Amino acid sequence: MAEGLEEIIRKHTLKNAYDYKLAIPAKIIGKVIGEFPAAKENMKETMKLINEEAMRVNRLAREEIEKELSLFSFATKKEEKKEIELPGAVQGKVVTRFPPEPSGYPHIGHAKAAWLDFAAATRYGGKMLLRFDDTNPEKERQEYVDAIKEGLLWLGIDWADETYTSDRMEEFYAYCDEMFVKFKAYVCTCLPEEVKKGRLEKIACDCSAREPQENMSLFRKMREGKMEEGEAIVRFRGDMKSENTVMRDPTLFRIVKAPHYRQGEKYKVWPSYDFAAPIMDSLEGVTHAMRTKEYELRNPLYFAVLRALELREPKLIEFSRLEIKGAPISKRLITPLIEQGKVEGWDDPRLPTLKALKRRGILPEAIREFVLSFGLSKVESEPNWDRLLAENRKLLDERCARRFFVKEPVRIAVLGAPKKEAVLKNHPNQPQMGERRVMTNGDFYISKEDLASISLGETFRLKELYNVTLVERENGKMKFRYDGDAGLAAKKIQWVVPEEAVRCKVRVPKDLLDEQGNFVENSMGEDSGVCERSCLELSEGTGVQFERYGYVRLDKKESGFLTFIFSC
What we know:
Layout: H1 5-20, H2 25-35, H3 43-57, H4 62-69, E1 95-98, H5 108-123, E2 127-132, H6 142-155, E3 161-164, H7 169-181, E4 185-188, H8 192-201, H9 212-223, E5 233-236, E6 251-255, E7 269-271, H10 273-283, E8 288-292, H11 299-308, E9 315-319, H12 331-339, H13 354-360, H14 364-372, H15 386-399, E10 401-403, E11 405-407, E12 409-415, E13 420-425, E14 435-440, E15 443-447, H16 448-453, E16 459-462, E17 466-474, E18 477-482, E19 491-493, E20 502-509, E21 524-531, E22 543-546, E23 550-558, E24 561-566
Parallel strand pairs: 1-2, 2-3, 8-9, 10-22, 12-18, 16-19, 20-24
Antiparallel strand pairs: 4-5, 5-6, 6-7, 11-21, 12-15, 13-14, 16-17, 17-18, 20-21, 22-23, 23-24
Helix pairs in contact: 1-2, 1-3, 1-4, 5-14, 10-11, 14-15
């Protein structure tokens, strides 16, 4: 028998509440009409029924929602897993590379690039290389190398080989000399502002006419430290008339005398990314070099360098860069926030760095699903946190034990309440997680918000315990009466026994930047309250669900006080 309108509304409302912790009518109406098109004929009545059902369902405990939901069936749409397709890929022969610069801690943008490289290599039975693009001595540190490797392993990404661009400096120098000989590069001794002016006005400088021998001699002086920073650069002999500004004799080498974290003071002339990246890709056997589409204009230079040196050409593949609405992704934006003390560090829970996401309680599997959902598309997008948090919530739901937390606690006494042991399940669907037992004697902490919502004469249930009725409200004072164990009151609230209460707070990360990209001063919220004593048994880093509140991760344990971070 086909389901009637009210049954269809009920099942989709229950499903919506189960998926999102709260039934939202606006998200239900489309599902209802999709299954029952005639509901459109009287939208006013349909919305009335949906609103009423949402109010009913939102008063149910999760286990009650699950019980009712089990009575319904849903048509399942078979989802085909999206595979990453690489042009010209040969099974077993694909080599990709993830080439981060070790100049900061890895963030979710790195996670996207790394997962695309790793997933593509895995898809074709190939391998992914981890290459540190470390040719900028002023910004790079071993600390960041270690952080990147740690972040990748936490994400579940492995690599076949680990290489460092700075280890091949002598080869770069030899290739540069070869380009001098082939009249493909020259040493430019113009002032930086003159170089900039010439490129802007499409006018070549006199330096471009230098003969190979003179260029090689000047290059040697640069390498020996006989020239100062800014005194000379090596430029590619491109096309100063090109409409693509990248091809107007770009820089291939520059003098940097700062010591290098890995090479020390051995080298004083360092290659640009435009020179080193294509050579490394070719020498390391990379078949498919993936990078964000911001480099698209640099593609002609990538191939021009390889052709000048007669090196093998990999396939270049671009994808869109990942931005998160309200969150600074780049090191350029994050570093000043740290230096100015506006955030706590690279692991501040409001940041999109991997350290911060881990501290917030975001699971690596959720990050994987989130970043891979964008695929190799070049379409720009700026999602907010919701999609990532929804993925995380689904994973945490099955893994996290349940605990009671009372925000802004108010103490109440229940008249006539018997001494009773409450048996609390650690998880409604995971019996192997066990249970915890709490002795009660009629005194409880409940939240100020819950207290304000109770009407005179209303019966509510202290979760997993018994029913209570508000029998008197006068001059701000309330009296509550024990109303038996049987039956299920519509409203259920969590509680903590005062003698068992542990003081705690939950830090709640919010968007760090506003619509204009400005720092939001009050972007870290905080809820103070009490949680049950069993929370003291948790280890730092453990995630739990505070019932009717959300998923949290224990960040810090102090004497008699716990600090949690809200995950989702």
